[in-house]
Design brief:
- The structure holds two protein chains of two kinds.
- Chain A is of the alpha+beta class.
- In chain A, the strands form two sheets. In chain A, strands 1, 2, 3, 4, 7, 8, 9 and 10 form an eight-stranded antiparallel beta sheet that branches.
- Chain A is built from three helices and ten strands.
- Chain B has helices at residues 3-34, 62-66, 134-137, 171-181; strands at 36-41, 55-60, 74-79, 82-93, 98-102, 111-115, 120-124, 140-141, 145-154, 160-161.
- In chain B, 29% of the residues are buried.
- By secondary structure, chain B is α+β, with helices and mostly antiparallel strands.
- Chain B is elongated and about 85 Å long.
- In chain B, strands 1, 2, 3, 4, 7, 8, 9 and 10 form an eight-stranded antiparallel beta sheet that branches. A two-stranded antiparallel sheet of chain B has the order 5-6.
- The termini of chain B are far apart.
- Classes of the chains: A alpha+beta, B alpha+beta.
- The A-B interface holds A 16, 19-20, 22-23, 26-27, 69-70, 80-87, 114-117, 137-142 and B 22-23, 25-27, 29-30, 33, 67, 78-84, 118-120, 140-144.
Chain lengths: 170, 182
């Protein structure tokens, strides 16, 4: 009798905890691991022990309060759904806002970023699948902004807004 | 009871009640975001399925998350030109489909053909004469879809499900027709 009510209490508490955790991670902030090297050296800087990748991946704090008014600016590192596959999330830096002109690499063309879109690029251009391949992305695909690195402990720091290195911006 | 004990009792009661309210709001948020939500639709672009005046509809979020929203479904999506604006349109084609559409039906009959890229959908309003949709802003990434509209709750004269084909008659008038016939 008492074990059944104990199990029922555990179920109720975990359900409540799940609801509150889900709401907080949707509306305020959540922690995600960064996989891949497209944002080196900002995240996952190159090191020799690639076998411990799972434990040494950077874990970052993603804040969701920016999704109420979508006010982003150059240099913000954002999490967004990939336009090629909505189930994948990617982390890149915004290097162009609506109205900017971005020069297409290896060509004399320049692309004007349409209203409501942004240009995202990885900090490691050699190993990054970003707007240079799939073009500007709508701001509605953004799911949060990265503010801090939380793990590993020796790399805890705030993420700076770095100005873009390449691309024209008038 | 001493003053401190009374005060501690009141504080505990207040904390319990506010925790209950917080749990309720969290439950509402999770249900709205992951299960089912309501929305107000208005505008001429989905005539005659939705009339010009405000209509209250139910939208379910599970199809958009699972990738099950397909051709013929009426969906609510974030506008690619303004992430704070939500528009209601019907999905005309999924990724890989070849879409032939009339660019500007009021002025000419010229058509254009496009193949929908991977990960995108083509949306159009049922009223192509007065709709700002994929013919203007291009194919929309699947990640912008918010939910599938499946039921209309207001006005009550048109209470019922939303089908996978555009209506040909205003649903609110269908009830009058049936009443006149009988």
């Amino acid at each position: 009798m008492t074990s059944a009510s104990f199990i029922w209490n555990v179920c109720k508490s975990s359900f409540t905890f799940g609801l509150i955790g889900l709401t907080v991670s949707d509306r305020f902030a959540s922690v995600v691991p960064v996989r891949g090297l497209s944002m080196s050296p900002t995240f996952n800087p190159p090191n020799n022990s690639s076998s411990f990748r799972l434990f040494t991946d950077d874990h970052v704090l993603v804040e969701k309060r920016c999704l109420t008014d979508y006010k982003f600016s150059h240099g913000d590192v954002v999490v967004f759904c990939s336009p090629r596959n909505y189930k994948e999330r990617q982390i890149k830096r915004i290097t162009g806002m609506p109205g900017d002109w971005i020069s297409v690499p290896f060509s004399y063309d320049a692309v004007k970023i349409p209203e409501g879109h942004c240009w995202v690029e990885g900090d490691n251009p050699a190993d990054s699948l970003d707007s240079r391949s799939f073009g500007p992305i709508p701001l509605g695909l953004i799911r949060g902004r990265v503010t801090h690195i939380l793990w590993p402990p020796q790399r805890v720091q705030k993420i700076d807004k770095k100005l873009p290195r390449s691309g024209l911006s008038f | 009871m001493s003053l401190f004990q009374q005060w501690a009792f009141i504080v505990k009661e207040a904390l319990d009640k506010s925790f209950l309210v917080a749990k309720f709001f969290c439950g509402v948020h999770v249900a709205n975001t992951y299960l089912c939500s309501t929305a107000l639709v208005q505008g001429p672009s989905m005539l005659p399925t939705f009339s010009l005046t405000n209509e209250l509809v139910l939208l379910e979020r599970i199809s958009a998350r699972n990738g099950k929203a397909g051709t013929g479904d009426v969906v609510i999506l974030q506008s690619p030109e303004n992430p704070r604006k939500f528009v209601t349109k019907r999905i005309i084609g999924m990724e890989g489909d070849k879409i032939t559409y009339i660019m500007d039906p009021k002025n000419s009959d010229s058509t254009e053909t496009v193949i929908v890229p991977k990960g995108h959908v083509w949306v159009q309003g049922d009223n192509i004469y007065n709709s700002y949709d994929s013919r203007n802003f291009g194919p929309v990434p699947y990640g912008l879809l918010q939910g599938k509209v499946f039921w209309r709750i207001w006005p009550t004269s048109a209470f019922g499900s939303i089908g996978r084909r555009p209506e040909t008659v205003d649903p609110a008038l269908k009830v009058l027709e049936q009443a006149n016939q009988s």
